[in-house]
Amino acid sequence: MARASILGARSAQPIGGRWQFTPLAPALAATPDDLHRLNPSWMDCDGPLPAAAALRAAGRWDLDRSRDFDADDWWYRCQFSSARIGEPVRFRFEGLATVVDVWLNGQCILRAESMFVAHLVEVERGLAEHNELLLHVHALAPLLASQRQRARWRTPMVSHQALRWYRTSLLGRCPSWCPAVAPAGPWRPITIEPASPLIPQRTDVHVGLDGNVGVVRVRFETGLTADCSVDGLLEVGGWQSTLTSLPNADGHITMEGIVRVTSPDRWWPHTHGSPMLYPVRATIVVNGSVESVDLGRAGFRSIDVDRGADGAGFGLVLNGVPIFCRGICWTPLDLATLSADPGDYRRALECLRDAGVNMIRVSGTMVYETDAFYDLCDELGILLFQDFMFASMDYPWEDEAFVRSVLTEAAQILSRLQSRPALAIVCGSSEVEQQAAMLGLPPMPPTRLVEEQLPDLVRTLVPGVVWLRGTPSGGAFPFQVNSGLSHYYGVGAYKRPFDDARRAGVRFAAECLAFSNVPQVAAFDGLMLGDGEAPRLGPRWKARVPRDAGADWDFEDVRDHYLQRLFAVDPGEVRARDPQRYLALGRVATGEAMLRTFAEWRRPGSACRGGLVWFARDLDPGAGWGILDSGGRPKAAYWYLKRAFAPVALLAADEGLNGLWFHLINDTPTTIEAALRVVLYREGRQYGESFGTAVAIPARSHRSIHADALPDGFRDLTGAYRLGPGGHDAIAATLRDAESTGFLAAACYVPRILPAEPADELGLIANLETTSDGHVLIVNTEKFAHAVAIEVDGWLPGDNYFHVEPGEPRRVTLRPVHRDASLAGRVSALNGRSSIPLAITEPVDARG
Predict the structure, then answer these.
(1) CA distance 75 to 100
(2) Alpha-carbon span 217 to 213, nearest angstrom
(3) Which residue from 353, 559, 572, 777 has the least number of CB within 10 angstroms?
(4) Cα separation, 464 vs 485, whole angstroms
(5) Smallest Cα–Cα separation from 219: which of 237, 244, 194, 236?
(6) Stretch 356-374: mean pLDDT, rounded?
(7) Is 632 left (phi over 0), alpha (psi -120 to 50) or beta?
(8) Phi then psi for 590, rounded to 5 degrees?
């Protein structure tokens, strides 16, 4: 059912009581009596938790102690008391992984066989004064070993091919890129509530637009009978209407209501406007007793798909405006719990929002997220690309039991996503069709589940969103990138040159740009081992680098390829001579690769309408695919993407013999009057006179400036004509507000290679100011400074890895991200020989 919760005393509550757990050998105990006879040793746990999280909390496991969580049975028990003896109650099991039997006071009340299906269990006889809830989580390994019909293909990604039969996450079971932390046990809340007939049995909330009128339709079934006196009111923001009571054939009551909101403020992704939300609530009076039902929040927006002039493209049009979707593929914040508290979700999503991310994909290799996550996507203006949990394998699409389970799962997640304006795309699977095609197999035969039942559910429960059968899709083969939605790793795993991002004709990259991104020093935590005084990269470092299953290379090799291309040095030689320099170059290399690719895709004239980076946050410490490390700290790639993703962006493009162009993009709803300034540098000093122009950038539009046409006379800015040695080695462009001169955006174009070795001293200066808003770092330099890095553990700068021009100081806010953060760290430039220490010793309270 949709988001509907009774407020007050009748709301669902955690069971409470004492939770304990224990692992046992498979099939050693099958019933509570068996368990009691064994009298196992129990460990306490803080509520219902997956086995990995419970063991970690007990100090019995961490990522450095490998364990197969699928190899054991896991038993949980909760002993709790109740004052409502004999009163009917309902238990809600929001998620049990994966095959689980549940007993209450010795009676089996549930068998769950899908990690992704929630269960509501009525206990009509009620509770005793003292109660015992038991969960028997069956070991998955013996079940996977049982004989099943063979698949058409084997996917190297997963640890066991029979996983295709079980509705469970692939997380923890993809050994080439994910730690072996398979989910086992309760991974979502278990709650109890009174068996009130008022609690909605099924709720539908549909939000739409009728011209310029917002329409909210609500329908929910209750357990109330027709002989009750029922009145109701539906409220959407400040608008109201009466709820109508209708008797059902079974004698119960269904309540319906429609609210029309005149000229509502539209919901926009944050890059293009404000994500306006309207609270939805019903007030119901039953026989004189008043109850409130929270129905979530509504946002009014329209979504259409633009297939391009050739019909082969894919782009979203929101509220009539084409949107360039840029973002990431989401990863759980904690691999052990597969959830987080609302504060952790807020910090993570605000961090991505601040980087200009306006779309997040929840991929089929992951898990469905919590309501707190989806609520924040609505609130922060981040579009949602939601997969069903299918990836890479040949699933038994026509097995009746499998289909029933999948349809229940799909209906539940779609009902949870009803009325959410962030939801833009629902996708059937990830890389399923690609796997078959790459193995030379014929296309998958159509199945009723994929072709009819799932899309019908989407149209019924979340009308107005985009349905995709799967990604990648389009072209002669699904993995070709110039049609439909692609998974683009040309720049990346396939080591293509940067201009492949244009040559490939990408239309929408639903996954892209996986790199082994080097974290900041604070995240290393022993991954760099010392040999005397010289740090080196140890085996633990290499073990944490992701790879494609079966490949004889990993994604550090990919990073090294682009490091060599950008800096013209031998990565192995630099690594052996100076590991710290090697890591510094590696941070910049993947950041530059991502910035250059998105600058290409986002430029005016590009056919590309979106790209989602694989992926958001590392699953364990190390140089993983994440643009955030496993602790949520931004890596260098994050800051480069922030410039590429910004609502107001300045992007450089080398157009060969047509010279250097700057593309000025304004996604905001306001016209920008600005001044563009361009300066050439040679060996860190200004080379010649600066030049520029005034420019107006219309709202939600763009302007392109031919930089070669700005100075007096031809300057061969890109070196395309090879007219002797180039006079400059860097070009810096800055966009400032015409009236306030406030900084808007900047870009740096390097016509040859990036500086691999530090130059002479740059005269870099970093001063701290304390203002009423907190600490501000002012960075200036005597010579041009490349990739200025701010390393202050426990603090988040407002920008990082930026260039600084002489006489053009950059002001960077510093915000503490945890309490009692002492400001101590360093500021350095990629082309500078020394770094500047920073130190404020007094603790500073975090400001949100």
Answers:
(1) 9
(2) 13
(3) 572
(4) 19
(5) 244
(6) 97
(7) left
(8) -75, -35
Question: What contacts 765, CB < 8 A, 6 or more positions away?
Answer: 779, 780, 781, 836
Ramachandran sector of residue 734 (left: φ over 0; alpha: ψ -120 to 50; beta: rest) = beta
Give residues with Cβ within 8 angstroms of 167, minimum separation 6. Answer: 98, 113, 114, 115, 116, 117, 389, 402, 405, 406, 409
CATH of domain 5-194: 2.60.120.260
Nearest CA to 586 out of 611, 550, 613, 622 is that of 622
CA dihedral 775, 778, 779, 780 (to 10 degrees): -170
Domain with CATH 2.60.120.260 in the chain: 5-194
Residue 516 has pLDDT above 50, yes or no: yes
Alpha-carbon dihedral 179, 182, 185, 191, rounded to 10 degrees? 70
Sign of CA dihedral 624, 629, 635, 641: positive
Per residue in 374-388, pLDDT (tens digit) is 999 999 999 999 999
Mean pLDDT of 442-463: 93
CATH number of 202-298: 2.60.40.10
Question: Which residue bears the tokens 């994604």?
Answer: 555
Distance CA 385, CA 361 (A): 4
Rg of the chain on CA atoms, in Å = 29
In the block, residue with structure tokens 């404000």: 274
To the nearest 10 degrees (0 to 180), the angle between helices 636-645 and 579-602 is: 20
Q: Which CATH number fits domain 648-749: 3.40.50.300, 2.60.40.10, 3.40.50.10330, 1.20.1250.20?
A: 2.60.40.10
Could you please state the CATH topology (level 3) that the domain comprising 765-844 is classified under.
Immunoglobulin-like (2.60.40)
Single out the residue of 709, 694, 698 nearest to residue 665, CA to CA. Answer: 698
> What DSSP state is assigned to residue 507?
S
3-class SS at 234? strand
Buried residues in 408-420 as b, exposed as e (16+ CB within 10 A): bbbbbbbbbbbbb
56-67 pLDDT per residue, tens: 999 999 998 889
The fold of 309-631 is TIM Barrel (3.20.20)
Specify whether the CB–CB gap between 660 and 749 falls below 8 A. Answer: yes
Residue 533 has pLDDT above 60, yes or no: no
Hey, is 325 helix, strand or coil?
strand
Which residues pair with residue 315 across a beta bridge?
A: 306
For the record, the structure tokens of 57 come out as 């909390």
Confidence tier at 536 by pLDDT (50, 70, 90): low
